[in-house]
User: Which sequence fits this backbone?
């Protein structure tokens, strides 16, 4: 509400951040682990006095430089650009809190660039010992970059003591910092092995190619195995709400976990195959599969980490839509539109209700929901919901679904938002009074149930249920599904809903 | 609509604003130097392609090798001032960024393309033939486009009066085209960049190519020619830029504010001195004067920003809660980092030119 919104209805900001971030981490972690891979492989070549291996290290360095310095460096800047566009309030908070952390990271970025240039351009010219030292400087600087950025990223997930003391170090060395540093370090070594495998498959000489494929495979597999306990430690340090989301309460994390588990299994299987079977043929197909699986594993992790702090962008501090949690009670009293800077309607009237609702949507929902787009489409999500259902749902949205931020504003503003979503987007009638016409059971069902499931979704589950069983279930909905809130209507309301459902599903009276 | 009502609240600073201002003004000219060297080297390499003779051919090849380094350092040295700009003016900068989001994001793919093209130019120089010319033209076009996007953002963030356009056009497609300072400011940046870049190419030729006197002489002649004539043009263009500034900002440089006026006079004198040094082909002297001039210009640019924002925002008003230890961490790291870099460069300087058997 402090900032304007970059409004492209079908392109949501969340997806854009995720795409840029996943592409970036896939290269930036390589930029860290790959440094260690280079310097250790160079040492191996020196010890063995193996010129072919040294030539491989040099070719790999060139590929490494072109990928990490150009693409990795600029996609890193891209994340900064994208988050300041999509979530300026959170970016500002992070920049202000950790400015000298970022500035320190910039110094290491500079050292990395110089070291990598020197390392690549002095291959074969500089004496071996100094060249190795330069390689270690590169790796050291790159790993400290990871260390520094991890502190800031995990601050967003678990700000810890910072919430009360606003101390830089409390925020930086937050509860998930150390497990995250270990996990990311192992991921970076794993990626180094995967990418090493990638360049190794291009080697012309058969023996060296097989040797390097195996060598890289062992790198990747060992790191992957080490990442598992670190990942478990990470999960174990999550605070309760985040842990609940990760363990199934968040549908998006559930999807990411499936992708992550499949990718992990595929990656481990492929690596074991490559190490044990020593494939004779060129292994381009396997190479592509290894890279996809590695990206799936890493992507699932990043997605989960981002989604686990929902409904916040900075856990407990700022909601995903940029609103400070501490300001919510005041805004509930005063009204959102009165406090917002980038709105034209300062209060809701009958004449401007839809337009005010649109502005509320823009500032409170659009951060995560597109309009008719691929990701989290608000129209598809609310298609089953009547105006009354939306009003009920918005009033208790955070309670019903923890990962959704609460609506912040007055009741009139809430109604305007519901009117915009139901009427403006879904073209539904905005009938406010109950029982204005038709079946009371149907209306009660629409108003109280469709926020989570439409009739069509529960019909298969209710097939063959007699009316009495439906009626009994309505008394204790949480017994059917622990995530379903109990219905708080009167006995007569429950009777009406049971009648309606029995009639719709063909249940015996 | 009163534009002041649109300006977001600034977040709390973690050190007195003078620190950030100093760091911004210290690092920004370094980014300018790298960016100027990049643009000017592309132009010099382009000109060298068009001129007849083997020395010019070798010159363009030698410049090709330097170009990827220049992109890397332009980006890296841009990160630090952008960070400090985010801290001091983030609430204004993010706003203008959102208004022009689509163009702003385009910077990333554009720079990535230019970067890879320059590596192609470097690594495949011999095979490219006349294709090299096309690559350089394309890179130059991309870089001046990126410059235009930056000029738009930097002028829009200090002009809240135009921000209300967002209500009608919220898709991130706004530019600051109706601002009379945009074009002269952009041209001032670009002409200056190409000029200084010519000087850099001359300096590079005179130092790095001194083993090949013919190529070095060609580089110095061409680079200094570009530098001198474009600097002359820049002086005239600077007058136009000054004339388009808002009257209250102009007045600051014309006696209204002692520091601003002193900067203006110093800038003018330095500009004249660099011109003389340029036309006399005094590479080292011109380079030394230019670095000073760039710092003065960066300070003047900051005066324009502060002056334009005066009705809306002042850094004095931003809340501050100081915590010194992170600042100390940064300063110590910077010192150590620079020492490590210096050590590496010394090692490179002592490195034999030929690859060992």
Assistant:
């Amino acid at each position: 509400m402090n900032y304007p919104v970059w409004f492209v209805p079908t392109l949501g900001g969340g997806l854009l951040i995720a795409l840029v971030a996943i592409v970036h981490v896939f290269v930036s972690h390589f930029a860290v682990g790959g440094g260690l891979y280079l310097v250790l492989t160079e040492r191996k070549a020196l010890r063995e006095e193996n010129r072919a291996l040294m030539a491989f290290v040099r070719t790999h360095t060139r590929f490494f430089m072109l990928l990490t310095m150009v693409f990795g460096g600029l996609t890193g800047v891209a994340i900064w650009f994208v988050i300041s566009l999509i979530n300026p309030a959170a970016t500002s908070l992070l920049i202000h809190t950790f400015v000298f952390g970022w500035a320190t990271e910039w110094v290491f970025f500079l050292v990395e660039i110089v070291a990598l240039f020197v390392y690549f351009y002095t291959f074969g010219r500089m004496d071996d010992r100094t060249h190795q030292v330069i390689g270690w400087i590169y790796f050291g600087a790159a790993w400290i970059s990871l260390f520094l950025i991890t502190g800031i990223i995990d601050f967003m997930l678990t700000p810890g003591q910072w919430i009360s003391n606003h101390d830089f170090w409390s925020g930086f060395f937050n509860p998930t910092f150390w497990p995250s540093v270990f996990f990311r370090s192992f991921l970076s070594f794993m990626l180094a092995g995967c990418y090493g495998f990638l360049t190794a498959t291009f080697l012309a000489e058969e023996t060296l190619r097989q040797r390097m494929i195996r060598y890289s495979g062992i790198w990747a597999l060992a790191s992957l195995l080490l990442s598992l306990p670190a990942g478990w430690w990470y999960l174990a340090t999550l605070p309760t709400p985040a842990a609940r989301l990760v363990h199934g309460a968040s549908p998006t994390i559930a999807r990411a976990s499936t992708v992550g588990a499949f990718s992990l299994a595929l990656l481990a299987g492929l690596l074991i195959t490559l190490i044990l079977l020593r494939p004779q043929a060129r292994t381009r197909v396997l190479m592509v599969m290894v890279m996809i699986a590695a990206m799936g594993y890493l992507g699932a992790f990043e997605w989960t980490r981002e989604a686990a702090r929902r409904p916040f962008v900075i856990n407990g501090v700022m909601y995903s839509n940029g609103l400070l949690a501490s300001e919510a009670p005041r805004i509930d009293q005063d009204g959102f539109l009165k406090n917002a800077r980038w709105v034209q309607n300062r209060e809701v009237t009958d004449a401007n209700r839809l337009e005010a609702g649109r502005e509320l949507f823009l500032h409170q929902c659009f951060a995560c929901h597109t309009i008719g787009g691929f990701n989290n489409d608000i129209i598809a999500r609310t298609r089953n919901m009547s105006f009354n259902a939306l009003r009920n749902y918005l009033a208790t949205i955070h309670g019903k679904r923890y990962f959704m931020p609460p609506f912040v504003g007055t009741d009139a503003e809430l109604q305007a938002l519901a009117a915009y979503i139901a009427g403006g987007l879904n073209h539904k009638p905005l009938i406010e009074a109950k029982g204005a016409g038709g079946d009371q059971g149907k209306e009660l069902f629409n108003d109280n149930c469709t926020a989570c499931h439409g009739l069509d979704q529960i019909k298969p589950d209710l097939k063959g249920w007699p009316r009495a069983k439906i009626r009994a279930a309505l008394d204790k909905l949480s017994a059917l599904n622990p995530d379903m809130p109990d219905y708080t209507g009167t006995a007569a309301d429950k009777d009406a809903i049971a009648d309606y459902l029995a009639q719709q599903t063909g249940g015996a009276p | 609509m009163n534009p002041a009502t649109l300006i977001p609240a600034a977040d709390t600073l973690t050190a007195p604003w003078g620190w950030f201002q100093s760091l911004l003004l210290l690092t920004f000219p370094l980014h300018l130097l790298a960016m100027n060297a990049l643009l000017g080297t592309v132009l010099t390499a382009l000109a060298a392609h068009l001129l007849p003779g083997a020395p010019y051919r070798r010159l363009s090849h030698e410049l090709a090798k330097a170009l990827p380094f220049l992109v890397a350092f332009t980006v890296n040295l841009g990160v630090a001032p952008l960070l400090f700009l985010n801290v001091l003016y983030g609430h204004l900068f993010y706003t203008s960024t959102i208004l022009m989001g689509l163009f702003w994001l385009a910077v990333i793919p554009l720079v990535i393309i230019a970067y890879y093209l320059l590596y192609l130019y470097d690594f495949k120089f011999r095979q490219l033939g006349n294709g090299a010319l096309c690559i350089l033209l394309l890179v130059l076009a991309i870089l001046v486009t990126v410059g235009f996007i930056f000029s738009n953002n930097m002028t829009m963030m200090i002009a809240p009066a135009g921000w209300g356009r967002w209500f009608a056009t919220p898709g991130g497609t706004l530019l600051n085209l109706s601002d009379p300072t945009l074009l002269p400011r952009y041209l001032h940046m670009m002409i200056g960049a190409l000029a200084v870049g010519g000087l850099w190419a001359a300096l590079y030729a005179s130092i790095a190519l001194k083993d090949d006197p013919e190529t070095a002489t060609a580089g110095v002649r061409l680079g200094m020619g570009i530098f001198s004539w474009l600097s002359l043009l820049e002086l005239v263009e600077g007058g136009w830029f000054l004339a388009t500034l808002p009257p209250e900002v102009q007045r600051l440089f014309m006696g209204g504010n002692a520091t601003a006026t002193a900067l203006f006079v110093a800038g003018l004198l330095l500009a004249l001195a660099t011109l003389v040094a340029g036309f006399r082909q005094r590479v080292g002297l011109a380079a030394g004067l230019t670095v000073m001039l760039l710092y003065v210009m960066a300070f003047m640019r900051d005066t324009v920003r502060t002056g334009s924002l005066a009705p809306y925002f002042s850094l004095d008003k931003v809340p501050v809660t100081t915590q010194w230890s992170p600042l100390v961490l940064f300063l110590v790291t910077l010192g150590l980092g620079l020492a490590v870099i210096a050590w590496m460069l010394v090692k490179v300087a002592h490195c034999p030119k030929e690859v060992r058997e």
